[in-house]
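User: Here's a chain of 174 residues. Predict its fold as tokens.
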Amino acid sequence: MGKRLTQIATRTGDNGTTGLGDNTRVSKDSLRVHAMGDVDELNSNIGVLLCEDMPADVRTLLVDIQHQLFNLGGELSIPGFELLKPDAVLALDEALAHYNAALPKLEEFILPAGTRAAALAHVCRTVARRAERKVVALGAQDALKEAPRPDLAADVAGPPQGPDGRPCLSPCGP
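Assistant: Prediction complete.
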């Protein structure tokens, strides 16, 4: 088990800075801090989504995505450090291909609706897209070890669709 934090509120950020994992201090308004916050927000929203009923394989995948998002957040908090391994990204690529294989080609955008779980998954999708934009912007400003791929989390966290094109997070059928 990792180290336990014994003090969450340190008051060291009262001057508008925050400490990174490498002990450097940056502005709380820096692009890096925004990217870390958006990845953390996505992880939290996936946690809310996991409170809903869903197929076991989707639940397992979302928990794995949470762990990888935690790694991504750690990687963002320690410039130049790698926690999100290429095999984890490959596993997400494979999961994305698996879940998209049976879906009909989209001919129109899908309204964020359907079941509560589907609507929550759409929230995850939009937060993931925002996190992706922040990470891409950070990568243009600071060299990242390997460009993280939060778009995969967005696509996989997005709800599977049934034959009628409506989102669902339970087995969809005719």
